[in-house]
């Protein structure tokens, strides 16, 4: 769904893109960098644009959800399913973040699959 009541500006699309790509901070700051990146974008820009706030919230919820899935997968290693899940999760995460970033850059209100919406 696009924000049809107001056209999404180039600046908003850029920040929406950054809200998703900021999750790659997890490669620099393991553990919580993938959550801190979108959180920083959200806290800085949430009052400036509904689109930016929405995309930053969506990215943040997705990253928190995937952290939970990784923790559960870690416990499931005991029954061997977890090893498969831990191998697949980073690939899915990368694919979904790239898709979300492209959609945000197009001005589309993207929704990640497999996301628990903690922050509304």
TrEMBL record:
It is a multi-pass membrane protein. This is Orotate phosphoribosyltransferase. It is found in: Membrane. Its main location: membrane. One of its GO terms (molecular function) is glycosyltransferase activity. It comes from Bacillus solimangrovi. The chain crosses the membrane at residues 24-44, 91-110. Keywords: Glycosyltransferase, Membrane, Transferase, Transmembrane, Transmembrane helix.
